[in-house]
Amino acid sequence: MAPQSRSKRPGLLSSGRPPTVKPRQAALSSKATRTLIRSHHQLLKARAQAEKAGDEAKVSSINAQIQANGGLESYQTASKLGQSMDRGGDSSKLLIDWIKPQLDQWEPSFPKLRVLEVGALSTKNACSRTPSLEVTRIDLNSQEPGILKQDFMKRPLPSSEEERFNIISLSLVLNYVPDATGRGDMLKRCVQFLTSQCSISFVPTLFFVLPVACVDNSRYVTEKRLLDILASLGFHLVQSKRTNKLIYQLFNYTGQCSSRTFKKEMLNPGTKRNNFAIILHEK
């Protein structure tokens, strides 16, 4: 297959987040929550295609539709409902369960393990309630004190080990990045924020959550392809769990990188498949 065009520099993560308006106040049912989230992602995909085609009129029209649906704040409200205990719970609880054997080594006199939670929605999740963890929370549109309004792709690179993290959480974040190259860039950037320095025996860790359709129903990504991409960056899968809608994975960072290139290539043809893709260029 011919190499993909690289004529357009990938946008920052913030380019995938639309302007916001006041969220709807009425409670959303589970079905309405899923519909809102699905519609929001479809509109973002359509807008990215319109931007690539240079169709400014269509971009403006799609932005209007996004705002009419409540913008980012309504999307975040739906995401919070999706994390409520009666709709599947807090994803970071699984992270804590998976790393509990290591956390049990920690003592109050030890420095805490540093966690960077990208796309944070709450300051009261399982990570935040774990005494051995010091959580830094960032999101493009902070909804409460304790969450820094920040684009991960714009966050200054660490200048010392103290500015790096033992754990990075990307829970339903990578699928929000509007283009395939940007997704690869985000995964590469994670490596720059991890540290091996720790008060206990703990390997740098990436906690990763995606809609299962991103690996089961994509034309360009399979679970094997995803694992190959992360392995090329030095990540080794140590835990995995699937539900009907989500795939949860825990990776240790080994530092053994292969600097491979992964292009957007057809892996699963089919008219009913989605176009989720990850492009990874050499370092």
Automatic annotation (TrEMBL):
GO cellular component, one term: nucleolus
Positions annotated to bind S-adenosyl-L-methionine: G119, D139
Pfam families, sorted: Bmt2
Keywords recorded for this protein, A-Z: Methyltransferase, Nucleus, S-adenosyl-L-methionine, Transferase
Matching InterPro entries: Bmt2/SAMTOR, SAM-dependent_MTases_sf
Chief localization: nucleus
HAMAP family membership: BMT2
Name this polypeptide is given: 25S rRNA adenine-N(1) methyltransferase
Annotated source species: Penicillium canariense
